Amino acid sequence: MSMFGNLSDKLANAFKNFRSKGKLTEADVRAGMREVKLALLEADVNFKVVKEFIKKVTERAVGTDVLESLVPGQMIIKIVNEELTELMGGTQAKLTIASAPPTVVMMVGLQGSGKTTHSAKLAGMYKKHGKKPLLVACDVYRPAAIQQLKVVGAQLDIPVFEMGDKANPVDISKAAIEYAKKNGNDMVFIDTAGRLHVDEEMMQELKNIKDQVDPTEILLVIDAMLGQDAVNVAESFNDLLDVTGVILTKLDGDTRGGAALSVRHVTGKPIKFVGTGEKLDMIEPFHPDRMASRILGMGDMLSLIEKAEQAFDEKKAAELEKKMRENSFTLEDYLDQFKQIRSMGSMEQLLGMMPGIKPGALKDAKIDEKAIDRVEAIILSMTPKERTHPDIIDFKRKRRIAAGSGNSVEEVNKLLKQFEQTRKMMKQFSSGKFGKKGKFKLPF
Q1: Which end of the chain is less packed: N or C, by CB atoms within 10 Å?
Q2: 289: helix, coil or strand?
Q3: Bridge-partner residues for 135, per DSSP?
Q4: Which CA distances in Å does 80 have to 41, 50, 84, 301, 345?
């Protein structure tokens, strides 16, 4: 997650001073905290939030437990981690599900914040959890807003309720809830209109919808790229609508990260979800403790494991284990494994969750995201027989495969060599050289 790259680097530099000294004095702590304060301000964290945060951390860090500790530097990082977690809400805040369906979620925010796509993303997330969502098109002002919702709804196979762009949004909302009750939709996501700035007319309409449909949740969608302005937007919406939670979007963008650290503290409302990319499955529940760990370069193995579990297909894994035992692993299976890894997200995102890899360290790294595309193109250029029996692929066939996939013969050779190495390794696993037979589990 690149948004915290600079902040992570600056905090790491501040912590170096703590780590390099065996014992710390109160003056050492205060000097280090000045650097932490500058790092947070440069990351566009709200000034009042920074002031209070530094005060809390300093009070704890100059305590005898820390200064007399054998590893005071680590103790301070632990305190910063705990206070960052607290700053962002402490614990995960889940979406409230209504005791009597449908659960009505009203999505609000400025135009361009990502309301429409995140209405669909959320609906898609809950559909995976067995819910039957309905999307509601209440933005009757922005050209093509209704069509956009229909397009993303169709991609996720989620119905969209709309009454055209001449109907009143309050009437649309009420009719949609009646429709949901009759058709067994247990979750309703209302995509409301936004403007380029907060204005009275928009707010009045949102208040009217709220008064008439009494939503279970009012989620404010905020673009993390807004930085300091995100806090002002959050305050305006919260004052008028009393929102129940926040969705931060564009967390994959090259922003300074201040919004994530300020919004919760300023509004008192929890961040419930974060958008981490453009694809419709790129949304995650917000875990303050995991985010704090990512910011401090400690990784986020729990989120990485959850992504792996979502991508993991048990039936396919059982088939693969059988093929390994029988030594019948093919290039088709090889391609399948790459697809499962790719469904977990971009390599930069996955590496950013590994402990010890700071987000900033990946900034200039050459991560070849197109490598899987090349593998796919090469394998798909082969005949079914070649995929099953790669040993028949001679130079003439390699030339044909290279031309068909838009790659060089060298790339084809490289892929075949990697496949052969993988097959050998799997043969060793299945023969029990690396543990009990049949006990091997895929690492993804």
Answers
A1: C
A2: helix
A3: 160, 189
A4: 15, 12, 6, 19, 29
Strands 103-108 and 245-249: unpaired
pLDDT one-digit tens code per residue, 214-263: 999 999 999 877 767 788 888 889 999 999 999 988 876 555 667 777 88
User: CA 14, CA 29: separation in Å to the nearest integer?
Assistant: 10
> What's the CA gap between 216 and 286, in Å, rounded?
19
Instruction: Report how far apart, in Å, the C-alpha atoms of 270 and of each of 87, 90, 96, 402, 443 are.
Output: 10, 9, 12, 52, 34
* 120-129, 305-314, 411-420, range with greatest mean pLDDT: 120-129
Asked if 96 contacts 103 with a C-beta cutoff of 8 angstroms, the reply is yes
CATH code of residue 350: 1.10.260.30
In a domain, 438, yes or no: no
Compare 430 and 442 and report the one with higher pLDDT. 430
CATH of the domain at 64: 1.20.120.140
Q: Counting beta carbons within 10 angstroms of the beta carbon of residue 159, is it exposed (0 to 12), middle (13 to 18) or buried (19 or more)?
A: middle
How many domains does the chain divide into?
3
Domain boundary among 286, 305, 324: 305
Q: Give the separation between CA 70 and CA 215, rounded to whole angstroms.
A: 53
Dihedral angle at the C-alpha atoms of 408, 412, 414, 416, nearest 10 degrees?
A: -170
Q: Which of 26, 20, 40 is nearest to 83 (CA)?
A: 40
Q: 160, 153 in Cβ contact below 8 A?
A: yes
What is the rounded distance in angstroms from the CA atom of residue 121 to the CA atom of residue 422? 36
Indicate if 205 and 325 belong to the same structural domain: no
Instruction: Give the residue numbers spanning the domain of 362.
Output: 312-430
Domain boundary among 305, 322, 356: 305
Query: Phi first, then psi: what are they for 48, rounded to 5°?
Result: -60, -40
pTM for the structure as a whole? 0.67
Does one domain contain both 119 and 226?
Answer: yes
| CA 273 – CA 189 distance, rounded (Å) | 15
Rg (the chain; Cα; Å): 26
| Single-letter amino acid code for the residue at 413 | N
